Amino acid sequence: MLLRVIVSKVESMKKITVIGGGTGTFVVLSGLKKYPLDLSVVVSMMDSGGSTGRLRDQLGILPPGDLRQCLVALSDAPELWRKLFLYRFEKGDLAGHNFGNIFLAALEKVSNSYDEAIETVSYVLKTKGKVIPVTLNKLHLVAEYDNGKRVTGEGLIDENHAEKSRIINAYLEPQGKANPKAIKSIEESEYIVIGPGDLYTSIIPVLLVSDVKEAMKKTKAKIIYIMNMMTKSGQTTNYKASDHIVDLVKYLGREPDYVLINNGEILPEVLSTYKRYNEVKVVNDLEKSNFQVIEKDLVDVGIERIGEGDID
Amino acid sequence: MLLRVIVSKVESMKKITVIGGGTGTFVVLSGLKKYPLDLSVVVSMMDSGGSTGRLRDQLGILPPGDLRQCLVALSDAPELWRKLFLYRFEKGDLAGHNFGNIFLAALEKVSNSYDEAIETVSYVLKTKGKVIPVTLNKLHLVAEYDNGKRVTGEGLIDENHAEKSRIINAYLEPQGKANPKAIKSIEESEYIVIGPGDLYTSIIPVLLVSDVKEAMKKTKAKIIYIMNMMTKSGQTTNYKASDHIVDLVKYLGREPDYVLINNGEILPEVLSTYKRYNEVKVVNDLEKSNFQVIEKDLVDVGIERIGEGDID
After folding, report:
1. Residue A187's domain is classified under what CATH number?
2. Does residue B311 lie within any of the structural domains?
3. Is some CB atom of chain B closer than 8 A to the CB atom of A59?
4. Is B50 a member of any domain?
5. A-chain residue closest to B111, CA distance
């Protein structure tokens, strides 16, 4: 794993904060939890699609989907609990709803605070690490496209595959305030891991919350950005690695210290699935810069087995 | 409590099995769990109304409602867990559904056995005692009335308030088999507590399951029947205490050893609520019989403070 080197270099538990919320974050957390780290994840709270979107609209709750995924990723509980939290009902009134989402929804209703709700889930899932919502405000993501179009809601932006125009601006509505615990975690970390994940629907929503950008500037943490392997239509259409960095830096307020990028072969059958959505491999066009580029075969080894010496 | 005397008489933990499933059982279990007893509850699995009914119909699961209530009654977990399991969603897709029911439904789907599902809930709720479904078959209750009418489904029988005709027969469809753990619990108990609870929708459904009646005859346990305070329209309309006993004995296959019956005053405002449904106080017309009748003020003290010496 990229971070094994960090672990092996010192005796003390390194404090690491992961930023994100989607499937990429799930994979990173599932890997990192195996190491003796002081691990936190600051989670996007803008999800508005699917089961999560319906629950937040109908019940006026915070979106549970990304939190639930992070909680399961860090879980050290018996397999049954992980299966339960990922279980999706198929029929009837509950059709399409994920049990973990329903659990967080009910907990939010009966708890005295959202902290208490997360602590309760963390207790049953025996999570190794802290799961921190980036904000406790109910916010929506807005994307403005180069053609003048504006789309509100993470779910709709995520599904806007057909959009050919580039996103020129993203912001939150309303602006909202960061969870002080998220700021503390960013400021006190030694390493911050961003991505992989959909740039505009998993990563940038975290960075957009007030005070997060400032905390990123202030922290002495080394920032590691894990580049996506594939483009995402309607969001990073035809983006090369440098395009990802430009957009990331705009919302992060600084350059990352390390960029981890895939140089392995992706199986043709996998590529052809992506091709149906006009999604292609992200080309590494990164030239000399202030950050260190680490090229590794992330396809074969996942992000599990990046050896020592990769990070100065 | 009626059973304090049992507890106080011996040093060993007495084994007690409670029979039922509704609100009455909830109250009995909530009281009994405070004592150092080896406590089990054999729960009715015929519920077909409300949230439980919709979940069993839509998802093909066992009815979770009565189980959930018993699990919560025996819970020694922090108040938050009890509140969570009793929480009912008010809006949207989940409107009317109880979280505890949804939890049991999802667990049934991901568990290897129903035992595992109940063990998992018992673990989080820290239940003091064993909650045992009377059967693991999917059965429905059928009631035949004196006027020839037949109603299928516990939920419909329960709501059939307007019915003036007496229930002359009740049976299960299909017949189904008892859970061996239920039979074992009945056979090995020293005391069995039946009721209070709706005679035809909470008590008799348990007794109707194959082998239960035989186990009741075989067991050396003393049977304590707690008489309902009020009649229930459409089910025990105008029933006196002796009518309850006649119907109970028919399905129990023997007389109880003790009958606990209220002699306290019920507040006029409470009585007038019942009166709207033509429900009245159950009159104690019990004459000399083989069982011991214990009259106590159950209104004031609940069933909490029946003193020593009440049971021989």
Report:
1. 3.40.50.10680
2. no
3. yes
4. yes
5. A80
Say which amino acid occupies A72.
Answer: V
Residues in A closer than 8 angstroms to B109, CB to CB, are: 87
A280 touching B, CB under 8 A? no
Q: Is A59–B99 a contact, with Cβ atoms under 8 angstroms apart?
A: no
B15-20 and B258-262 strand pairing: unpaired
For chain B, how long is the longest CA-to-CA vector?
A: 56
Instruction: Quote the domain boundaries for residue B275.
Output: 2-296
Under 8 Å CB pairs connecting chains A and B tally to 77
The answer to whether residue B305 is domain-embedded is no
| Cβ proximity of B125 and B70 under 8 Å | no
Could you tell me the CA-to-CA distances from A193 to A30, A257, A287 in Å, in that order? 13, 10, 21
Report yes or no on A311 lying in a domain: no
Along the 312 residues of chain B, how does pLDDT read in single tens digits? 455 544 554 446 799 999 999 999 999 999 999 989 999 999 999 999 999 999 999 999 999 999 999 999 999 999 999 999 999 999 999 999 999 999 999 999 999 999 999 999 999 999 999 999 999 999 999 999 999 999 999 999 999 999 999 999 999 999 999 999 999 999 999 999 999 999 999 999 999 999 999 999 999 999 999 999 999 999 999 999 999 999 999 999 999 999 999 998 899 999 999 999 999 999 999 987 889 999 988 876 544 444 444 554
Chosen from B68, B80, B103, B108 to mutate, greatest number of chain A CBs within 10 A: B80
- Kindly provide the ipTM of the predicted complex, given to two decimals: 0.89
On whether any CB of chain B is under 8 Å from the CB of A79, the answer is no
Q: Considering its fold, how many domains does chain A have in total?
A: 1
* Residues B124/A81, Cβ–Cβ less than 8 Å: no
> Which chain B residues are within 8 Å of A97, Cβ to Cβ?
93-94
B79 at interface of A, judged by CB pairs closer than 8 A:
no
Query: Is any Cβ of chain B less than 8 angstroms from the Cβ of A217?
Result: no
The answer to whether B10 contacts chain A (CB < 8 Å) is no
